[in-house]
Amino acid sequence: MDEAGFMRRAIALSRQGVQEGGGPFGAVVARDGRILGEGRNAVVPGRDPTAHAEVVAIRAACGALGTHDLSGAVIYTSCEPCPMCLGAIWWARIGEVVYANDRADAAAIGFDDAAIYEEVCRPMAERALPLRRLLAAEAIEAFRLWAGKPDKVPY
Ligand SMILES: [Zn+2]
Fold first, then answer.
1. Residue 77, beta-bridge partner list
2. Which contacts of 105-114 are long-range, i.e. CB under 8 A and separated by 24 or more positions?
3. How many angstroms does the Cα of residue 15 sit away from the middle of ligand 1?
4. What is the structure's pLDDT at 115?
5. Catalytic status, residue 54
6. Which of 42, 74, 107, 112 has the highest local Cβ count within 10 Å?
7. Catalytic residue among 3, 20, 54, 126
8. Please, is 143 exposed, middle or buried when counting C-beta atoms within 10 Å of its C-beta (0-12, 13-18, 19+)?
9. What band does 56 get if pLDDT is binned at 50, 70 and 90?
């Protein structure tokens, strides 16, 4: 399948998401000409605010391949990824993002993608969402355990 085919599949999934009561978003993760995993938005029907199409597609691809590492893959998404999905894409080591609708298109129909991008770019003290630090001296112990673990799997 070529990249127009991958994007058309993502767009078809976005329409399916709407029909199922989710948001209008679809995504496929592809590598070497084939789809590794696909997803459509299921936030409302799945009662899961993290069930964005890209996250669902990444979970599907990782489950199918039995790995947390999608190096060399490309994600085709019907809309520019929100900051959460962009983070998931980075963590999955996906190599490229191809999108159709953009954050302005999403904002025009009432989605917060653009607003969250603006929020993330503000200095921490100026953000609407408070972040406070607590019990760091106790939490650091898990970091020490990880750092000293000889058989850890870095990611
Ligand atoms: Zn997202």
1. 27, 99
2. 105/79, 106/79, 106/80, 106/82, 109/24, 111/23, 111/82, 112/82, 113/79, 113/80, 113/82, 113/83
3. 16
4. 87
5. yes
6. 42
7. 54
8. exposed
9. very high
Whole-number Å distance, alpha carbon 53 to ligand 1 midpoint, is: 7
pLDDT tens-digit profile of 87-114? 999 999 999 999 999 999 999 999 988 8
What is the Å distance from ligand 1's center to 111 Cα?
10
CB count within 10 Å of CB 84 equals 15
Euclidean distance between CA atoms 112 and 117, whole angstroms = 9
The CA 142 to ligand 1 mean position distance, Å, reads 29
Q: What is the pLDDT of residue 112?
A: 85
The DSSP 8-state label assigned to residue 134 in this structure reads: -
Q: What is the mean pLDDT of the chain?
A: 96
Residue 88 three-state SS: helix
pLDDT of residue 76: 98
Which pLDDT belongs to residue 82?
A: 95
